[in-house]
Amino acid sequence: MITPGFRFTPTHHDGRARAATLETPRGRIETPIFMPVGTAGTVKGLTVDELTAPPLDAHIILGNTYHLFLRPGLEVVRALGGLHRMMAWQRPILTDSGGFQIFSMKEISKLDDDGCDFRSHLDGSRHRLTPERSIEIQATLGSDIAMVLDHCPPGDAAPADIDVAMARTTAWARRCLHAPRAPGQALFAIVQGGTSISRRRSHLADLGALTGPETSSQFDGFALGGLSVGEPIPQMYEVLDAVAAELPAERPRYLMGVGTPQDLVVGIGRGIDMFDCVMPTRNARNGQLFTSQGRVVIANAAHRLDPGPIDPNCACETCQRYSRAYLRHLFQAKEILYSRLATLHNLTYYLGVVRRARAAIISGTWDRFERDFLASPESEAHRGQRS
Amino acid sequence: MITPGFRFTPTHHDGRARAATLETPRGRIETPIFMPVGTAGTVKGLTVDELTAPPLDAHIILGNTYHLFLRPGLEVVRALGGLHRMMAWQRPILTDSGGFQIFSMKEISKLDDDGCDFRSHLDGSRHRLTPERSIEIQATLGSDIAMVLDHCPPGDAAPADIDVAMARTTAWARRCLHAPRAPGQALFAIVQGGTSISRRRSHLADLGALTGPETSSQFDGFALGGLSVGEPIPQMYEVLDAVAAELPAERPRYLMGVGTPQDLVVGIGRGIDMFDCVMPTRNARNGQLFTSQGRVVIANAAHRLDPGPIDPNCACETCQRYSRAYLRHLFQAKEILYSRLATLHNLTYYLGVVRRARAAIISGTWDRFERDFLASPESEAHRGQRS
Fold first, then answer.
1. Would you say the C-alpha torsion A25, A82, B316, B284 has a positive or negative sign?
2. Are A279 and A387 in contact (CB under 8 A)?
3. DSSP at B258
4. Distance CA B169, CA B151 (A)
């Protein structure tokens, strides 16, 4: 990697799957890794102690620039010494650029080649986001890994629109590379191109050729954006199959906003190192629990008298101490404790998947792991189900 | 006390205030004690580990019979091995009789001398509560201390209505004393009588004279009910001043549903041993925090950039790790984590008050503690403010 303090070291390969260490100024991340989403300065429902304690043991979390910019706002984050100190999280944070949330609210945002005017969904106040402004905000947040501002078209976008998005994303990526970042803050580029493999390759080539103010300043990592945005899942898998392993091998590869446990395993098998998704946290709150035996819908009457745990193979506190019947009761009664316990479980499950994948890669048993996982109920149960 | 497995031992007296140990089959309670309210099988927002860990260290919690009877219902509680096992709480639980909640919903309950017909506020289903049924439900819940079914009139009830409530409460208390309880379950009587000291004394005499199937079976403790139900606070204090120390000295004295930090200190000074109230938990969720320097309304703009803790004198995790500005942000963003951290703090504060009171009694400095506390902002700020 380029930015001082970061070092990415692939240590094991098994097919295209790989295990690596990503050292950062705030600690070491073992990949493949899943990043819990901490939208508004908190992974909803959990304390930082719960996030770091085994077996969950999240190595890195994600923060949403758009949400944090609006609330609590940069003045507050600055007064509290940055996002890490504000939320008492000492491990790495990756921030998105803010673009994805803003562009998805079409009725209150107006995109142009230079950036985007938008209104706050909270109070209607007017703001402008540009590549430089996104990097400036992320510098104030003080994340460890910043993302370039990209233009992410919907999954059913016309080819011409995808071309515009790619060109903009390239131009904006260059501007981000030239914008001043916080000390010790890495920057990842985002590859667009929809479900067209040739577009993906072409965009990756464009991004890979970019340099910053010094020719040595390049991107620290590469992300695949614009996937799992409404396109059929088999098409996403085709893109992953063709492109993931073509992202620079000496840099982390990040599949943005993805996905189901199956998506994680498919992605890792194609060479992806990093993932994030709201699915484990949001689904937890909505009553959907991930388990080694498939999906559990906690409201189901079948669990009413069930004294067993959510997942007998799970070591999280929820599964060690509480029954399905109790969790169902807490869910029905809309008790806060339900959301906590369910989130703790789902994130433990997700981190468990990437940890099992990593162990399989290291032990040279990836093929069997991937085959068994994709044939098992824990994969099948969520096929096609998106957050 | 009467029930095997229980032993109440006053160890220190300072004026009318006293420190004692209440040994139960599920562990020892040091009094004066405050009991966090776990309405629906959970102290809202907290795990049992958080409740038992110092500095909070709750020795006993309260469960609401009415709520648990309706949801999850006795079939579920039974299937999970009782309330303790259901919620993974291993320390003592006191359950109320269910009457207070039911009678307070006048439009869906109909009271008579034998008991009360009522409809569920959840699904409109019809039920009947009698003294025997209340004890039967509490036996199924498996609480360590059950309460008699009492008739609690409102704070502005007419004298004739209070007389009816007292007569009913006495008759029901006798029936409760004769009803079969769970093994190792104690039973407390409830003294009514409104704000009339002579009525309170007369009712206490009636209850104290009751015996169960054997002449040796009497009540294990005595509670003052029907206070903090709308009457002026000075009148409540007059009742406490006259009656609290007349409750049998060799049994625990419990002031039900009370109150502010000031109420706790006033009650302890008059000889009360046990308290419960939703105030610390409910106010936490509503943005009101108790501190050694008085009330903090977390939404106030004054806290927007404040990097300091809620209470610099508090050892709870919330105060050790998080700033007022961050908590204000979480409150504004309606984040679950806010309710957790605020509840943890408020309960730590409440348990701290009774612990400080106990230490003052033991060290023979009660008078000074009481005087200083009642003159301090932590008392003043909540004067007259009820949950």
1. negative
2. yes
3. B
4. 6
- The rounded distance, in Å, linking the Cα atoms of A191 and A210 is 13
**Residue A72 structure tokens:** 């609590």
Interface contact flag, A88 B45, Cβ < 8 Å: no
CB atoms within 10 A of CB B223: 29
Tokens 């990415």 sit at which residue?
A8
The CA–CA distances, whole Å, from A90 to A26, A48, A59, B264 equal: 7, 9, 10, 39
User: B133: left (phi > 0), else alpha (psi -120 to 50), else beta?
Assistant: alpha
Q: Which domains does chain B have, with CATH numbers?
A: 7-277 (3.20.20.105), 284-380 (no CATH)
Contact B184, B25 (CB under 8 A): yes
Q: Is the peptide bond before A5 cis (omega within 30 degrees of 0)?
A: no
3-class DSSP state for residue B189?
Answer: strand
By C-alpha distance, which of A36, A31, A34 is closest to A278? A36
Element (H, E) at A7: strand A7-14
Nearest residue to A313 via CA among A387, A376, A386, A380: A376
Helix (H) or strand (E) holding A234: helix A233-243
pLDDT in 10s for each residue of chain B, 387 residues: 789 999 999 999 999 999 999 999 999 999 999 999 999 999 999 999 999 999 999 999 999 999 999 999 999 999 999 999 999 999 999 999 998 888 888 888 899 999 999 999 999 999 999 999 999 999 999 999 999 999 998 888 999 999 999 999 999 999 999 999 999 999 999 999 999 999 999 999 999 999 998 888 899 999 999 999 999 999 999 999 999 999 999 999 999 999 999 999 999 999 999 999 999 999 999 999 999 999 999 999 999 999 999 999 999 999 999 999 999 999 999 999 999 999 999 999 999 999 999 999 999 999 999 999 999 998 864 455 444
| A123 noted as active-site residue | no
- B105 has a chain A CB within 8 A of its CB: no
Rounded Cα–Cα distance for residues A372 and A378 (Å): 10
Phi, psi (degrees; rounded to nearest 5) at B51 = -70, -30
Determine whether the interchain pair A337/B304 forms a contact, defined as Cβ–Cβ distance below 8 Å.
no
**Cβ contact B277:B259 at 8 Å:** yes
Q: With a CB-CB cutoff of 8 Å, which residues 128-147 of chain B face chain A? A: none
Residue A302 at interface with chain B, using a CB cutoff of 8 Å: no
Please, are residues A5 and A25 in contact by the beta-carbon 8 Å criterion?
A: yes
